[in-house]
Amino acid sequence: MADTAAGAPLLDVRGLKTYFHTEEGLVRAVDDVSFSVSSSEVLGLVGESGCGKSVTAFSILDLIPVPPGRIEGGEILFRGKDLLKTESHERRRISGNHISMIFQEPMTALNPVMMVGSQITEVLKLHTLLDSHDRWEKAIEMIAKVGISEPRKTAKSYPHELSGGMRQRIMIAMALVCDPDILIADEPTTALDVTIQAQILELIKAMQRETSAAVILITHDLAVIAETVNRVIVMYAGKIVESGDVKTIFTEPKHPYTQGLLKSIPVLGEPGKLLESIKGRVPNLIDLPPGCHFANRCPFARERCFEEHPRLVEVDSDEHEVRCNLYYD
Amino acid sequence: MSTTIATQVSGAGTVSEKKPNKYVGKSPLQLSILRLRRNRLAMVSFWILMVYVVISIAGNFNVFGLRTAAMEFSLDNRYVAPFQTWQHIFGTDNFGRDVFARVIMGTRVSLFLGAAAGLLMVPLAIAIGSLSGYYGGFVDDIMMYVMSVVVAIPALLIIMSLVQIMGRTFFIIALAFAVTGWVGLARVIRGSFMQAREYEYVLAARCLGAGDARIIFKHIMPNLFHFVIVRFVLNYVGVIKSEVLLAYLGLSVIGVPSWGNMIDESKLELMANNWQNMIAATLFMFVFLVALNIFGDSLRDALDPKLKNVINRVEN
């Protein structure tokens, strides 16, 4: 794998459409999503539950349950190669080796009947030519690297003997053991308590700096985004509504949804102030209104918003894009 | 001075090393075995079963002339009453064969039949259940259709026709029990696979590049072994009881004593007030089945402690 031409993104997702054909109707879980990740970049994917963040990640890794789900269109280019068109064995070689993932729930993401060390060696067995002794040593080295004391003892323990934070560390070790180019972290801290959250994020950042892997961090926690990522993509109802540099998004959010999200973060030291929330609920993805999906909750909604679906347009700088009728004619 | 401190320290170290926690670093299966070993009733049943295993192995060879005593006719010695002579402690039957020797030979047939039927049934159930549950869709539709058809025909009918057509041999009878017995386990495995293929550790294995076969056998199957073990034991009970029924219909293994054959033969002897054949076979079978049932239940509780708690809660 020679390095790609300078400036070319490592992963380029273009017009990705992942639909679920359910009994109630067609669910457009991910609808025309495009973004790119360049090497050693940390990209944040934010949005509330059911907005298509995880489905986007699952599409990249070919984890969509095939009936009812289907990728209906678009391209996922990894180093210029379309993953959706590669053979399944070739794709398996890429996933795990070059792209890997950390899951949300450390309690269920490890196999309960396998020693955690063996679960790490499993990955090495699939992607390297190391013999069993070297694999075990490498697993122990990896466990030590993610900050677990007594790695030799831990490698021989079973998931039920480890705490949530330790399991998440093992998951990270498992995901990073083959030095992937891209690490997708799907809400890695949601199931952990706050002190452990900070440690795990710190660990992901440290590992990212060390291996210079690109990270796609999926979360609904804006605090996590603010302190971890370089660039943010905000998703709503299966579409990207705003994307840009993390500073720009936090200082001058353009989309009313992003503004609402930022207003609903509690601020320390301002007691007695009622926290703002976004009124209403996410529309049912089965029968979306023809206009802007956010129109029914938007404080600035005009008549036009209910009729015409907005385009993604650039505002201010070239990196900042917004999907809102307010910003163009 | 320093040496004494060093010895003290190392002495303290050995004290703490002497009591390692035996629950640390044990796999779920090892923990289940520890739980099982704490259950006294289960261990008693286990040792009873072991005695039966030894008996059945002994029955396979001509130990102490057992085989000769069980097979040879001696019409002078018909219907010797039990507990009269040491030579025929359980008496003799219609043809003068020693009942004690026959009951021990019969243990062999019943135990081997149960084991063989289970060993044929388990791979069949695993193959069909896992394919059906893991792939779903079209594959699942076909497998479910096959299962429904097999269940819809009375099991006894299938067994009888198979044995009639292909012969009353040991292997065919075991096969007949396997063919009728796999559906229950296959259904359980199918359901568990459907659940498991959505689990995050399976997704994790997939996204780390594992293929289908690897996921089925290495990642999901070991999680379902408790179902397989428990079902194997319960199937064993069923096979042994069915063998008696089959013998009564004149379809059990031909030419060798089995518990079923002995009970079948005793229906004529009972009329002449000779009950030794019936009682001996029934007693041996009863003790074995009770032990097997208790052991099977304890095994299930030990392998799936959550289930036991649920049952306790419901009962209280």
Could you walk me through the main structural features you see in this protein, from its secondary elements to its overall organization?
The complex is a heterodimer of chains A (329) and B (316). With 329 residues, chain A is α/β, with parallel strands linked by helices. In chain A, the strands form two sheets. In chain A, strands 6-7-8-3-9-10-12-11 form an eight-stranded mixed beta sheet, with helices on both faces. In chain A, α3 runs parallel beside α6, α4 crosses α6 and α6 runs parallel beside α7. The N terminus of chain A is likely disordered. Chain B is mostly helical. Chain B has 14 helices and no strands. The chains are: A alpha/beta (329), B mainly alpha (316). Chains A and B meet through α2, β6, α3 and α6 of A and α9 and α10 of B.
The computed structural class of chain B is mainly alpha
Fraction of residues in β-strands of chain A: 15-25%
H/E element string of chain A? EEEHEEHEHHHHEHEHEEHHEE
Tell me how many strands of chain A there are: 12
Helix proportion range of chain B: over 70%
Distance between the termini of chain A: 45 Å
Q: What is the second-level CATH architecture of the domain at 11-109 and 182-190 and 214-327 in chain A?
A: 3-Layer(aba) Sandwich
| Rg for CA atoms of chain B | 25 Å
Contiguous helical run count of chain A:
10
Global morphology of chain B: globular
CATH top-level class of the domain at 11-109 and 182-190 and 214-327 in chain A: Alpha Beta
Low-confidence parts of chain B: 1-16, 311-316
Q: Structural class from helices and strands of chain A? A: alpha/beta
- The rounded distance between the terminal residues' Cα atoms of chain B is 63 Å
Supply the number of helical segments of chain B. Answer: 14
